[in-house]
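Please decode residue identities from the backbone states below.
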């Protein structure tokens, strides 16, 4: 009997113990305010090493070792949370507040897409990954493993990188910083050198391919790059950091946040200095970047936030491409650059870039009621700077060739320019002035805008977003003399108001004009959640763009043509989509849209003049639709997207002379392109230590049809010209139509990570202008395919009371030689193409100390 009792007691004890150890704590971790899942968040049983990470939907289940206690939930960039449990506990939705004050409100203005809810193809890169991988790369290159992206360093100068998205260049890819569009108001381009240092202050970067989630009217034919800067940290702290790299690269910086103080104020400041010699010859650079955010929570209803950031930089450029033979015959190989030389023993740039573009915004967040908020950003940007180049330069005996490009003025056949020879010749010219000099093409601007978004929960399932977008822009364009190269002056005969002016350093030359652009837009979007698994939206926008031009050189001050009228162009867009979560693992989405994009400034004022105005410039017409599928499992997350975008009536004009001698313009329609393809990307968590990422993007981008026998008629209906463009089935150029990537992130130790990335590019065609294809000819030259390996190792450790990290990076590990950019040449062959070689092996080592 005694043995039986002992056996029963032992059995009960074992069952009780098993019950204890079988107890679990579960929940779903999401971002406060947006309910975006936070995959990879850490959940640890307090005072133990027992823990798990959340899956792709933010879900977790932790087998706990005690019947009661606490779990600590943490995620980089968010405030940790400690929650008590007792027995089997389902904590439900656990909201983590961002560690950045005001970030939620910024995301409303910025149209941030939500995974598995917003029906668009989207990839998000967080600050941690940017910090790990960026190093000395150009900011757009951090996106190179994203489907549909082709990013290069272009000529290789600091800040000269470029990006194409689904085959569209920067003019047709919207770039927004905190919801504010930054594409140039006149031509739509994005100059990344204006934002040098942006990687230091980015909280997250989202690539929304195709139509995207932006509600404002922006040029997102290929997609939208949505950059969210840091705001200010909730808790006091900061860091200091430094990076050393190849070719004399040095970077030093710091960040400090006050945290939210008792009076409701919070402030963050960040600054860094960067300089180096550049991998490519003659691309020395220096830059200072800065960031300031000051926030104040006035009460439960109002919050103000002021942000200012920018970078003052100057760098030498490799502006002009060369044939492959030129690089091969040069001692410097792929580092060769013909746009620099020596003057009095000092490096002097023929081509360089200098710019300072501070951007400031004051954001006001108003909680009107429990269901309605108003977010308004008033912003201003003042750009100052431009790019270097040459004046004059023809010489006797050179048959019209330039001193700046002639081998006779080089130190060696393909060496740097001998500026001293030009200086000596200009001195000898005496009273005749300089025959060759240096200048800068200035593109200053003043830009003001207001973007306001009202968000109202009309019901539990219906949300209205509506707002206004106002912008005013003045571009100030002129050239100025920067170096007379030993001469006393250089003759400028381009100013009608002051002909044959002897221009000195600082004087304007060649041209001087202002471009005035006005913008007023309105947008509205309805989001209807049929249930928690079925989300839909429809969005409308409309905008009026106005252009005006003032020319101070080509017309006398008394000439009425010096200042034009304002010309208005109406654009609009409509898009909609739906996302359906089939179950916890599968979702599908569809979106479609149509919008018309107003012609650019140069398409209205042709040939840089005020007397040849294309007042009836046609809108470009874009239709896009997309089908997507997503899978979220415990270990695997994957997406598949099919897309098709038709780009009709690309701006094409023909200028001709009327019988009365006046100039007239005809808009030629039918220059159309089709961009279609499939994109696949995935993340596989093989174990707690190993994460594998990958993507494949297969595009088919071609010009759709020929434009044949288009008659150009004058006012008397006489045929004055016939236009032919033979472009049907030619590949859209300037970006890889096939890209693939594979990445491995492995935890060597709990504090040491090794990252290996491989990127592959194929089907890249040399760039060409379809307007030049007046005869039937071959496809553009296809550049050789290439692949590149990158490696990163990061180690975190304690340095006294501080958290510290060391990061080493190697880009192009195997020193592969490849051509990244090309312009098509005669006959579309490798021998005639003008190219830029990509950079060889580069490295950087960085250290960061957090306090």
């Amino acid at each position: 009997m005694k043995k039986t009792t002992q056996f029963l007691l032992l059995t009960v004890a074992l069952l009780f113990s098993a019950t204890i150890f079988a107890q679990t704590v579960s929940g779903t971790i999401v971002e406060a305010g947006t309910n975006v899942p936070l995959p990879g968040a850490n959940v640890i049983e307090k005072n133990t090493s027992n823990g798990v990470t959340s899956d792709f939907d933010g879900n977790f289940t932790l087998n706990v070792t005690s019947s009661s206690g606490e779990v600590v939930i943490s995620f980089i960039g968010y405030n940790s949370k400690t929650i008590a449990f007792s027995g089997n506990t389902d904590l439900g939705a656990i909201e983590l507040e961002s560690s950045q004050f005001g970030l939620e409100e910024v995301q409303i203005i910025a149209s941030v897409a939500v995974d598995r809810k917003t029906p668009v193809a989207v990839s998000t890169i967080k600050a941690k990954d940017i910090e790990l991988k960026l190093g000395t790369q150009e900011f757009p290159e951090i996106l190179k493993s994203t489907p549909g992206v082709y990013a290069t360093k272009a000529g290789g100068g600091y800040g000269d990188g470029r990006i194409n998205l689904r085959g569209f260049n920067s003019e047709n890819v919207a770039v927004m910083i905190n919801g504010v569009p930054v594409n140039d108001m006149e031509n739509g381009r994005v100059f990344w050198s204006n934002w040098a240092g942006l990687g230091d202050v980015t909280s997250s970067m989202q690539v929304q391919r195709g139509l995207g989630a932006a509600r404002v009217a922006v040029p997102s034919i290929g997609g939208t790059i949505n950059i969210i800067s840091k705001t200010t940290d909730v808790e006091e702290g900061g860091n200091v950091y430094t990076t050393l790299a190849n070719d004399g690269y040095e970077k030093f910086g710091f960040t400090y946040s006050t945290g939210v103080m008792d009076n409701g104020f919070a402030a963050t400041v960040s600054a860094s200095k960067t300089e180096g010699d550049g991998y490519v010859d003659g691309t020395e650079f220096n830059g200072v970047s800065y960031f300031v955010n000051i926030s104040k929570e006035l009460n439960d209803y109002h919050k103000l936030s002021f942000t200012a950031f920018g970078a003052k930089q100057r760098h030498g450029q490799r502006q002009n491409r060369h044939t492959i033979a030129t690089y091969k015959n040069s001692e410097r190989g792929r580092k060769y650059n013909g746009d620099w030389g020596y003057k009095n023993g000092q490096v002097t740039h023929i081509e360089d870039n200098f710019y300072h573009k501070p951007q400031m915004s004051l954001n006001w967040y108003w909680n009107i009621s429990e269901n309605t908020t108003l977010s308004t950003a008033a912003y201003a940007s003042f750009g100052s700077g431009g790019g270097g180049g040459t004046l004059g330069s023809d010489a006797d005996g050179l048959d019209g060739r330039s001193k700046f490009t002639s081998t006779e003025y080089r130190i060696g056949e393909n060496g740097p320019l001998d500026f001293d020879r030009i200086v000596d010749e200009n001195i000898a010219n005496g009273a005749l002035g300089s025959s060759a000099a240096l200048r800068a093409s200035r593109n200053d601007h003043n830009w003001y805008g207001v973007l306001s978004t009202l968000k109202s929960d009309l019901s539990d399932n219906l949300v209205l977003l509506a707002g206004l977008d106002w912008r005013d822009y003045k571009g100030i364009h002129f050239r100025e003399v920067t170096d007379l190269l030993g001469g006393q002056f250089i003759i400028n005969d381009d100013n009608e108001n002051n002909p044959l002016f002897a221009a000195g350093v600082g004087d304007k030359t060649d041209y001087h004009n202002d471009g005035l652009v006005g913008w007023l837009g309105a947008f509205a979007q309805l989001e209807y959640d049929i249930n928690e698994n079925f989300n839909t939206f429809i969005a409308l926008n409309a905008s009026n763009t106005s252009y005006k031009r003032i020319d101070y050189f080509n017309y006398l001050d008394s000439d009425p043509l010096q200042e034009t009228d304002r010309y208005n162009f109406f654009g609009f867009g409509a898009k909609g989509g739906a996302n359906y979560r089939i179950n916890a693992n599968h979702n599908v989405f569809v979106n479609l849209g149509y919008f018309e994009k107003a012609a650019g400034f140069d398409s209205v004022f042709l040939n840089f003049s005020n007397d040849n105005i294309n007042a009836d410039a046609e809108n470009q017409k874009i239709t896009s639709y997309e089908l997507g599928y997503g899978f979220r499992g415990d270990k695997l997350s994957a997406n598949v997207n099919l897309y098709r975008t038709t780009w009709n009536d690309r701006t094409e004009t023909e200028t001709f002379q009327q019988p009365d001698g006046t100039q007239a313009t005809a808009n030629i329609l039918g220059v159309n392109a089709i961009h279609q393809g499939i994109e696949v990307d995935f993340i596989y968590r093989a174990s707690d230590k190993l994460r594998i990422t990958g993507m494949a993007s297969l595009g088919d981008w071609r010009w759709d049809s020929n434009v044949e026998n288009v008659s150009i008629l004058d006012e008397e209906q006489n045929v004055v010209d016939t236009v032919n463009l033979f472009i049907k089935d030619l590949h859209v150029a300037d970006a890889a139509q096939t890209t693939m990537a594979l990445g491995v992130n492995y935890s060597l130790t709990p504090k040491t990570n090794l990252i290996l990335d491989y990127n592959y590019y194929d089907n890249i065609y040399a760039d060409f202008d379809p307007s030049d294809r007046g005869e039937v000819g071959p496809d553009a030259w296809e550049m050789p395919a290439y692949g590149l390996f990158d490696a990163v190792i990061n180690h975190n450790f304690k340095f006294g009371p501080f958290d510290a990290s060391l990061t080493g990076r190697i880009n192009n590990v195997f020193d592969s030689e490849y051509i990244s950019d090309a312009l098509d040449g005669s006959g579309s062959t490798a021998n005639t193409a003008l190219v830029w070689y990509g950079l060889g092996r580069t490295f950087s080592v960085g250290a960061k100390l957090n306090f």
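Observation: Confidence is low (pLDDT under 50) at residues 10-21.
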